[in-house]
Amino acid sequence: MLTIERIQQALTQVIDPELGKNIVELGMVRDIQIEEGDVIITLALTMKGCPLKELLKENTRVAAEAVPGVKCVTVELATMTTDERRRLKERLSAAISMNRIGQVVAVMSGKGGVGKSSVTALLAVALQRQGLAVGILDADLTGPSIPRLFRISGPVPGTPMGILPIDTQTGIKVISTNLMLPEEDMAVLWRGPIMSSTIRQFWGDVLWGRLDYLLIDLPPGTSDATITVMQSLPLDGILMVTTPQSLASMIVRKTVNMCQALKVPVLGIVENMSYFISPETGTRHMIFGPSHTQAVAQLAGAPILGHLPIDPSLTELADAGEIELYEHAAYTELATAFLTVVPPIEPQPAAPWMKQHHNNGFK
Questions:
Q1: Which domain holds residue 32?
Q2: For residue range 238-249, what is the model confidence (pLDDT) as tens digits?
């Protein structure tokens, strides 16, 4: 016999991909009516312009049609009332956190121009290709380049539950200030306290969902944004990016000392722009001279995870926003070495943004 209970049970298979729970548990199924095999379902969405409304509507229809005895299914969309949204918040706060994140790793350098953002992006791509769920928090608030590398744009969708990140073509989740600006070349004229508050919001108010890795692209140097991330977010460690020159390695050593002062472990060193291979002869050229990265690694007590080449084809793809199409053995090897040092773990409910055990050093 076809019953409302059977329809409701079938709808527990419909998962909201952003909140990670089924639509019945979330209280989104407002009403079910059955008349001679015809089923009418009213689905209450968290907001009128929900970007997932067509997906949820179709998945609801398919799930209900699979119940024996159902002839036709009509799904009507509505918007949650204030009371329904309040009850949803209570359900979510009482349940396990909607954000379940495995490892949180910040990518850092002592100076600009070493390719830190491209290393972040390509490491994310390499991890994603291995079937891991990856997000990028672009903490370089005044010089964000991650959206351009992936050719994504805002505005970011907002829901009563929080901010939704933008997905790249391969499903990497990204949040960045450039996704919130009317024009990507608009200057961000923020002082330290506002920048720190924004980074905390990126951590606490964004609906990341389930991630194996969240990579944080830090600004160069030791700015307020960097200190906020290192003191306030539950970092598992730092990936340090440098280039072969002595000057670059000297500046990076300063940031290694900063990490040690704040008791944040350096997990590994990546040397970018290590060499250039001539396409005509296959000869490897050390454009920036002999490497000084080993001294950085010794100071940090961390392994060198990769030596990455200068590659004009990468520049072309990055400028076109097609960085996900780039392939090179050096980045596959980097991902393999990274996973050895920072192996995937079962994602856990995300901790609150304020991290008590790292509140040493700068205030």
A1: 4-94
A2: 999 988 887 767
